Amino acid sequence: MYYIVYVSASTRLLTENELKAILIENELKNRQNDITGLLLYSAGIFMQVLEGNRVSVEETYQLIRKDIWHKDVIKLSEGNCWDRFFTDWYMSFNTRYPQSFAAYKGFAEPSSILLPAKTPTPGIELLKIFLEGSLLFNDVYKGVTVGAVRSKFYRTFQ
Ligand SMILES: Cc1cc2nc3c(=O)[nH]c(=O)nc-3n(C[C@H](O)[C@H](O)[C@H](O)COP(=O)(O)O)c2cc1C
Question: Fewer beta carbons within 10 angstroms: which end of the chain, N or C?
Answer without folding.
Answer: C
